[in-house]
Amino acid sequence: MDVAGYINRAARRVPPWTLYIAGFGWAAWLFWQAATGAIGVEPVNILERAYGLLSLKLLVAGLCITPLRRLAGINLLRFRRALGLTAFMFLIAHFLVFAVLDVQTLGRVVTEVVKRPYVMVGFAALVMLVPLALTSNNWSIRRMGPVAWRRLHWLVYPAAVLGGLHYVWLVKGWQLPPMVYLGIILALLALRIRLPRAPSWVRAQ
Question: pTM for the whole thing?
Answer without folding.
Answer: 0.88
